[in-house]
Design goal:
Blueprint lengths: L1 E2 L6 H14 L4 E5 L13 H6 L5 H9 L5 E5 L6 H12 L3 E6 L7 H8 L6 E2 L5 H12 L5 H11 L3 H13 L3 E4 L2 E4 L7 H12 L3 H13 L4 H5 L4 H9 L3 E3 L6 E3 L4 H7 L3 H17 L6 H13 L6 H8 L6 H13 L5 H10 L3 H11 L5 H18 L3 H13 L5 H13 L3 H13 L5 H17 L3 H12 L4 H4 L3 H15 L4 H14 L8 H14 L3 H12 L4 H20 L3 H12 L5 H17 L3 H18 L2 H13 L5 H7 L7 H15 L2 H14 L2 H13 L3 H13 L11 H4 L3 H11 L4 H8 L3 H15 L4 H8 L3
Parallel strand pairs: 1-4, 1-5, 2-3, 3-4
Antiparallel strand pairs: 6-7, 8-9
Helix pairs in contact: 3-4, 4-5, 6-7, 6-8, 7-8, 10-12, 10-13, 10-14, 14-15, 16-17, 17-18, 18-19, 18-20, 19-20, 20-21, 20-22, 21-22, 22-23, 22-24, 23-24, 24-25, 24-27, 25-27, 27-28, 27-29, 28-29, 29-30, 29-31, 30-31, 31-32, 31-33, 32-33, 33-34, 34-35, 35-36, 36-37, 37-38, 38-39, 39-40, 40-42, ...
Length: 814
């Protein structure tokens, strides 16, 4: 019994299953109940049907038994009457397989429910698609990836139902709610609910009693109602009946009531005329004002919105204060900020900043330009700050923005907020020493806002990192994390402050494995989906995955990060695309890497991120066989980084020269000044020293050290170099390490034994070496037993061994 909401795919599953069984020669039939008193009747020929007494279900059942059907598929079982359902239940008990779908478990007729209770049938819920599944299906429908905002909106509008999703996508394109830019679909306007969902909801809603409709409308308007508020709006009996009918559900933790199917909300509210909508709002307002406890922040936001919708003017200061509470819904924030601005509050900068963060820089700049001539004092400074962040970070015009700031600061008192932004522009322009100096000046001053303090600490930490000063960078990050009201200092402040120490440690190569565990825990603890605080953690985990020679995992994480929204993603997009290019190249997806690099070439890249873009281009050039070009790119990048004092760029680019066979790169690496510290960097230096000595055993020992600290990509390349110098242990080690990293494309010039295995053969060989049986391997990898045995046999042959014990000795770490 397939049980799901309308449009959840039950009919499609039945169609596919029916087709497959018929092709397999199984005696089968498919029926649609359609409210018929006897759905089995169509299986009989006309003469037999006419001979039966008034389509009597029992007589039809007896006549159908002679057909010898093995499987019967039934659509819309919830439309069956009791007698017909009993006939089908008897048919199932007699040995005929029955596969049916129904809308809602409570709608399944009692005779079929008894089959489930008796253990004779399985109830298979057709759960809504998750957001990730919606994004994957939407990409298939649209031909290109969707960003995180689109995935959320599509999930909401479709209810996670495949048929509804297809309708929403078509409607979104027609209404230009979905727009494509830079190879990805973005949300330009709210999406309408699916047509089929709208029809089903309206039909069911209008059939309810007025009392039940009123309660559902109140829940739809509020989106979530605390239990004590619910009691003031509807009777306990109404709440119970509506919940049992599947319209509402309770949050298991808080007990709050919400709609069970979120997309039903806009449909219900859209069906109300003005007077009915006003009546619902007034009931909600009365309940919220009468409750004998302080309202939660989100309830205060809702109450103000309801009052505004019935025509009551809000207090501008209250509207602004509620809008800026952490966690306020973006749509509610914009509504309240516009109301505050219309009421005379100084909310222009807050609204412009909101527009900047929601990818509407043109609107933000227009609002700022209109507001500047009539503002002064602190509001004027805030407007100038948001304009600088919009042009410098979102539009990536940091050089132009820096020049404009410098002109302003020449003619005015040096405001701390604008100096903090100037520090960020200096950093984007690859002038970290100056950025550190300006940020320090701000922090040493007495008259500074929360924003100036928090933002200066962020620039100080990032600037010290670029200069290779780990301790100073971590100290600034710790001060930022300990800052009271960091969320009030700037949005996403708490998330960025939590992420920053881990990113700094990864960047300077300090204990990569320990950092991986720490970031992984924080990432898992974050809310589901790519929230703005989670995207940076995903980025750092992706870079760690690439270092660990797990580029497939890196690609997965970076695609999610690329689909995220928010100010951090906008500012870091060039880095994200550069890392994605590298991960795709290392996994062997050369065409995908080329397409990503083309995307990177079409956007503005600030000087501070140019080194990452160059490393991506070099990685792809080397994979395409042009190592000469790769060496030239990284040599220029290293020289530019050293000249600008960018210690990390200089180190990374020089080490890349080692990877691409530049014989002078090891000496240049050891000669670099102001080197960042950390176990990873120390292992890289040891590798460079071993190469200078041309000592195969030392190179192999360096490879082991790189592997142990988590720089497994470099370890594999070092083992390959040691093997080419004649170290047999290194060749054996290379075979084992490549088997442990199946998503990594092996070095082109490695030995046949090291590179001959396919990805699947590497997976099977590693599991077998670890003691897994053929059956366990098949289950683990989702393949048949015979396929697992075939892969294992090929792997044994290519590796030149005959038994599992030999495989274990070859592949497991020495």
């Amino acid at each position: 019994m397939l049980i799901g909401a309308p449009g959840s795919g039950g009919s499609r599953v039945l169609t596919d299953a029916f087709t497959a069984t018929r092709r397999a020669g199984i005696r089968t039939a498919r029926l649609v109940s359609g409210g018929s008193p006897c759905p089995l009747a169509p299986l009989l020929d006309r003469e037999t049907r006419e001979s039966l007494p008034s389509n009597d279900p029992t007589a039809v059942r007896a006549a159908t038994a002679s057909l010898g059907l093995e499987v019967v598929f039934l659509d819309d079982a919830h439309l069956l009457d009791e007698a017909s359902a009993a006939v089908l239940a008897d048919l199932a008990r007699s040995g005929t397989a029955l596969v049916a779908n129904a809308t809602g478990a409570s709608a399944v007729p009692e005779p079929l429910r008894r089959l489930i209770a008796e253990g004779r049938a399985d109830a298979v819920p057709l759960d809504p698609l998750t957001r990730d599944e919606v994004a994957e299906l939407a990409e298939h429908l649209l031909g290109d990836p969707v960003d995180g905002d689109v995935a959320i909106a599509l999930t909401t509008a479709s209810g996670g139902r495949p048929r509804a999703l297809s309708e929403v996508v078509d409607a979104g394109i027609a209404a230009r709610s979905l727009v494509k830019a830079d190879g990805r679909w973005h949300l330009a306007a709210p999406l309408p609910p699916a047509r089929s969902l709208r029809t089903a909801v309206l039909d069911a809603y209008t059939a309810l009693s007025p009392e039940h409709r009123g309660w559902i409308a109140a829940v739809a308007q509020a989106r979530s109602l605390a239990e004590d508020l619910a009691r003031r709006i509807a009777t306990a009996e109404t709440v119970r009946v509506v919940e049992e009918a599947g319209w509402t559900a309770r949050d298991p933790a808080s007990g709050a009531v919400r709609l069970a199917v979120e997309p039903a909300g806009p449909v219900v509210l859209g069906s109300l005329n003005r007077s009915a909508r006003t009546a619902v709002l007034q009931r909600l307002i009365a309940a919220a004002q009468a409750v004998d406890r302080p309202l939660l922040p989100e309830e205060r936001v809702d109450l103000l919105r309801w009052r505004m919708e019935v025509g009551l003017l809000p207090d501008p200061a209250e509207a602004r204060a509620l809008a800026m509470l952490p966690g306020t819904d973006p749509a509610a924030r914009e509504l309240l900020l516009r109301a505050a601005l219309d009421g005379g509050a100084h909310a222009g900068a807050d609204l412009a900043d909101h527009l900047r963060r929601t990818r509407r820089p043109t609107e933000a700049l227009q609002l700022i330009d209109e507001a500047l001539p009539r503002t002064d004092g602190g509001e004027r400074v805030s407007l100038l700050r948001v304009r600088a962040l919009t042009t410098g970070v979102v539009e990536r015009r940091s050089g132009e923005t820096l020049a404009a700031l410098d002109r302003h600061l020449l003619d005015a008192e040096p405001e701390a907020e604008l100096l903090a932004v100037r520090a960020s522009m200096l950093l984007l322009e690859a002038r970290p020493a100056e950025a550190v100096e300006v940020a320090t000046t701000v922090l040493d001053g007495a008259d500074r806002s929360a924003f100036a303090t928090g933002f200066s600490l962020l620039q100080l930490a990032l600037g010290q990192r670029e200069l290779g000063r780990l301790e100073a960078s971590l100290d600034a990050a710790a001060r930022l994390l300990a800052l009271d009201g960091v969320e009030q200092a700037f949005q996403d402040g708490r998330g960025l402050a939590s992420w920053l120490p881990s990113e700094l440690l990864v960047a300077v190569g300090a204990e990569p494995e320990a950092v991986r565990a720490r970031v992984g825990d924080e990432h898992a603890a974050a809310q589901d989906g790519l929230q703005q605080a989670r995207a940076p953690m995903s980025y750092t985990l992706a870079t760690i995955a690439v270092h660990r020679a797990e580029p497939g995992e890196g690609v997965r994480l970076l695609r999610d990060v690329d689909a995220a929204s928010g100010a951090w993603r906008e500012g870091w997009q060039p880095r994200i695309l550069a890392e994605l290019t590298i991960a795709q190249t290392l996994s062997g997806a050369i065409d995908d890497a080329g397409a990503t690099l083309e995307r990177l070439g079409r956007i503005a890249v600030p000087p501070i991120q140019r080194g990452h873009a160059d490393l991506a281009a070099a990685q792809l050039a080397a994979a395409r066989g042009d190592t000469g070009r790769a060496r030239a790119i990284v040599a220029e990048t290293a020289e530019r980084g050293a000249a600008a004092g960018l210690a990390l760029d200089a180190f990374e680019a020089t080490f890349a020269g080692i990877r691409y066979g530049d014989d002078e790169a090891p000496r240049r690496l050891l000669a670099l000044g102001a080197l960042p510290g950390g176990a990873g960097r120390d292992a890289q230096r040891a590798y460079a020293a071993a190469l200078i000595a041309a000592d195969a055993a030392a190179v192999d020992a360096a490879a082991v050290r790189l592997w142990e600290v988590g720089l497994r990509l470099h370890a594999i390349e070092a083992a390959h170099r040691a093997a080419s110098l004649g170290d047999e242990r290194a060749d054996r080690r290379l075979v084992a390490w490549l088997a442990r990293t199946p998503s990594l494309r092996p070095p082109e010039t490695a030995s046949r034994r090291a590179t001959g295995l396919t990805v699947r053969e590497r997976q099977v060989a590693m599991l077998a070496a670890g003691g897994a049986s053929d059956r366990v391997i098949a289950t683990e990898l989702g393949i048949t037993l015979r396929t697992a045995q075939t892969h294992l046999g090929r792997a044994l042959g290519k590796l030149g061994v005959h038994r599992r014990t030999e495989l274990r000795g070859l592949l497991l770490e020495p």
